[in-house]
Amino acid sequence: MYLLGCDIGCSSVKVSIVEAESGIMVGADYFPKTEAPIKASHIGWAEQNPDDWWFYVKNAIRGALGKSGIRGEEIEAIGIAYQMHGLVVVDKNRTVLRPSIIWCDSRAVAYGERAFRSIGENRCLSHLLNSPGNFTAARLAWIKEYEPDLYRSIDKIMLPGDYIAMRMTGEITTTISGLSEGIFWDFQDNCPSEDIMSYFGFSHDLIPKLCDTFGIQGELQGSVATELGLKKGTPITYRAGDQCNNALSLNVLNPGEVAATAGTSGVVYGVNGNLSADRLSRVNTFAHVNHTKENPRLGVLLCINGVGILNSWVKKTMMSEGTTYDQQNLLAESVPIGSDGLSILPFGNGAERMLQNKRVDCTIFGLNFNIHTAAHIARAAQEGIVFSFKYGMDIMNEMGIDIQAIRVGNSNMFQSPILREALAGVTGTVIEMYDTNGAVGAAKGAGIGAGIYHSPEEAFASLKKIEEIEPDGLKADRYCGAFEVWKERLEKMI
């Protein structure tokens, strides 16, 4: 018996196949093999074509099946994780009307800020747990103003995972967790927000019907099953945004537990049991995968836009052709902690929520032409990423989230020894690394939703810790000193 997980990222689609009884991944693939394009026709814009995601899904599933050596008929359930906050709009024929406005697009900041003031700050924070900010609802308001003819043609709005589920099943549905990440969910009234719908003038008909995060959300259509190499009727039994799903994949489900990831963007995600919010919306609160009205489970999400994308930029522009990330990490390790006075603010990928939706852009401080090299840039970039995490984690601490340990997967930038050591040192936390990834988490989520696993504890019993990084006292002091320099430079910019 096997489970299939799809992780719809902005760089690629990743697919993992898990043998249900053992919990072991038996096959995986990703597509495209080079980074997926993001269209940015104006400064601060970011769009992708949803049809491209579907093309990537098909190729990644076929690749994972081929590598696993199993037959598609043996897949019992499918789980979907996806890049959060993206807006997909379709007409009555389920045709995509425009490219998706994705998570790192900044065009709708002003719409969210006006809604925050008009609806009322206290009302937004108590009912939405956020400012409407630069999220999905505000992006729809931008379309309504600037593309009115297209807006009138919209039948349903979706998040990226809702769209992939629609392509698989023919049904348009969404989840409470999904609506909360779009700032459409009222946590007090436990329904789509009347405040948001009325303020922006949205029809409630635009919202898809709700389905449970875990449970049968639809079944593969025959023609689609043939395309994917799977069997007709295979159920989709789990769906969640990538950061909620990353937390699930690390068995982070209860208050006080914390997960992190460092892909294109970087996230620290802590679970809270109370309906609380940051008054400045520097960190954001969404319904976690196991949230219910009776038993609140909220994910408090710190997001830094420019993490892996900064590291990739350094590799492409500062390193010689053919340099691998491992080689880049070794080069960075040749430079002392603090990068000989060089600091990098990693904020060159759109407006930063942590900085109250300001566009600070990436800035390099203290560059000395006589001593600094590409190796210094490589190290300062990773330290700047870690210091931005620390800056945001201090905000989470103000909300009452006491971070003692951070669980991470063995993927993306957490494969860098510098990143792990620096994060442990500057925050004073233990970093626990596990052998998992988002696509594996989605597969196990599908197993929970299908009833193959009777509990998350059973699903993640096989989760294997492969390394634990504790703060090194001497190095920690040096990282903390470098952080104070970095922080002073940041605060001069904002």
Structure overview:
The chain is of the alpha+beta class and 494 residues long. The chain is built from 17 helices and 23 strands. The chain has helices at residues 50-68, 109-119, 121-127, 136-146, 148-152, 160-169, 176-181, 194-200, 222-228, 242-249, 308-318, 325-333, 374-398, 417-427, 438-449, 456-459, 473-493; strands spanning 2-8, 13-19, 24-31, 47-48, 75-82, 88-90, 100-101, 156-158, 173-174, 185-186, 191-192, 209-210, 214-219, 235-241, 258-262, 266-272, 284-287, 298-304, 343-345, 363-365, 405-409, 430-434, 465-469. Strands 17-18-16-15-21-22-23 form a seven-stranded mixed beta sheet, with helices on both faces. The chain has a six-stranded mixed beta sheet with strand order 3-2-1-5-14-13, with helices on both faces. Helix 11 runs antiparallel to helix 13 (374-398). The longest helix has 25 residues, at 374-398. It is globular and about 65 Å long. It starts with a strand and ends with a helix. The relative contact order is 0.13.
Please supply descriptive tags for the structure shown above.
494 residues; alpha+beta; seven-stranded mixed sheet; six-stranded mixed sheet; 17 helices; globular
> What's the overall average pLDDT, rounded?
96
End-to-end distance, in Å? 53 Å
Quaternary structure type: single chain
Q: How large a portion of the residues is in β-strands, by DSSP E?
A: 15-25%
Rg (CA only): 22 Å
Overall 3D shape:
globular
Major sheet characteristics: 7 strands, mixed
Structural class: alpha+beta
Strand sequence of the main sheet, in spatial order? Answer: 17-18-16-15-21-22-23
| DSSP E strands, number | 23
**Unreliable runs:** none
Helix content: 25-40%
What is the number of helical segments per DSSP (H or I, 4+ residues)?
Answer: 17
